[in-house]
Give the backbone structure.
Amino acid sequence: MSLTRSKSLIAVPAIGLMALALAACGKAGSSGTDAPEDVAGAGCAPVAGTSLVVLEDDKKLQNADNIIAAVNADASSEALLAAVNKVAAALDTQKLIGLNKAVDIDRKTPAQAAEEFAAANGLADGLSGGSGELTVGHGNFSESNTIAELYKIALEGAGFTVELQDVGNRELYEPALEKGDIQVMPEYAATLAEFLNGKANGKDAPPVASSDLAATVTALQGLAEKNNLVVGEASPAADVNAYAVTKEFADQHQIKTLSDFAAKCSGKESILGGPPECPERAFCQPGLKETYGIEFGQFSSLDIGPSTQAALKAGEITLGTVLSTDGGLAAG
């Protein structure tokens, strides 16, 4: 299960807990357990810095959680899909980082950030054939809201009348999407595929999502059809768990990928920072060990956002768990 935003059932600590979390950084047992005694390798001590670098997940630990539109099948049309697919094509991960920075750091509204992006990218140009009213839902976090605003602009450009609605978590909005109470929802390919897989086949069903985007979308399309849904084209933009170091650390050790980190920095001096559940989640600390062979001498319980980034820049952790589209990654 991912650790990202409301895409999972894992709560993200509030920003107000940053000071408490940072007080625990760099101490053995800060995750509630003792530092391991049998870690092989010297590892790499943290290096403070002013900006962060996300290390490439070159062995594809993370699932393909690319942005994708989920649409009520009864409301779907060629004009609707053309509009949401134009949004998908206009985004990539770096552009989504920029949009999240505009909202979360520069304090623009999601509507303002979307309007500026849409104007710069001609998002409403060349679309037509739409008519009638649509309700576009969004989750209760800014990225989902901003993407919904982009859908609104494109759909209105095609001729639809669009209302936005905050629809809460997936357990609430997915049935509403099936029934047609809302017609369009920004989604994440792997997470939606596994949600529908669990719904159809039970919580212990073998996973259908993977790091293979094409295979994940194919599985999602089949599951969506069984639930009166269709999905648009997957965007190049993906919001997944990612692992960051300071630029100064990356330059000092000549590290660009998680494989580089494994080769040079697995060991006792390395400190991993992330949310409290990281030591137990397959896509977090256990996955780093199983997929890359990375071991750490210590783990610091933080969040998947501001406090982890602050701890990295302060030189209190070596590697930090972040979101690949977090606006703080563009803040420098």
In short: The chain is about 40% helix and 15% strand. Residues 8-35 have pLDDT under 50 and may be disordered. The two ends are 29 Å apart (CA to CA).
